[in-house]
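WARN retry 2 of 3 for item q-0093 after timeout on previous attempt; input resubmitted unchanged.
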Amino acid sequence: MKASHSDQQAILEVQLLDDQLATLAKKEANLPETISLNSTVIKRNNIRDLRVAAETERTDVKRELSRAEGDVEQIITRIQRDEARLNSGTGTPKELEQTQHELVTLGQRRADLEEVELTIMVQVEGITNRINELTAEEEKFAVEIADLEIQRENALTVIFTERATLAEKRAAIVAPIAQDLKDLYLKQASDNNGNGAAMLVGNECKGCHLTINATELSRIATLPAEEVVRCEQCRCILVRG
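OK item q-0093 returned
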């Protein structure tokens, strides 16, 4: 293949611009702001999951509390009924004695149930405190996430602006280059991790940084400037100075 010396120099400029664009892409993919944001989002989500679990637990425990309160209310109702019967004095002495005995039993039962009720209330309070702490931590992470999102957007804006400038410059340089040279460059870049063209400096290809043997160098030296040279090692378009 033949191409003008100016086109070969231009394709090398395109390579340099593509290298810069690739660097920007890597920078975008590995932004510290994005890494920090993702880490913080994970932390926030973990705290959120703990809060939701605690709220579910509190709902279940409150259900137990409602049952315990209902049991206490039933005992109180029975106690009030028996006390009213005793105070009225109606019934035989044996019945009144049985009522008195039942009151003692109910009183003990009420004490036991109220102890259970108190224990559950303390449990609800503890869970509520834990939920409040988790909610505060979740809100703290939400503020950090909002700040990190702004930082990331600012960093991306810088990258996007630089990318647009490079892309515009690349388009202007690549437009007049012969199509067959452009096609060769694009194919080689696609097959070689983005390396399509490189400068030949001395006996070294700057694409793969390998030394070109003396025989090949001698051959290249005899070729006209319009002849497109390829590196034997990496197959890059070798641009001579």
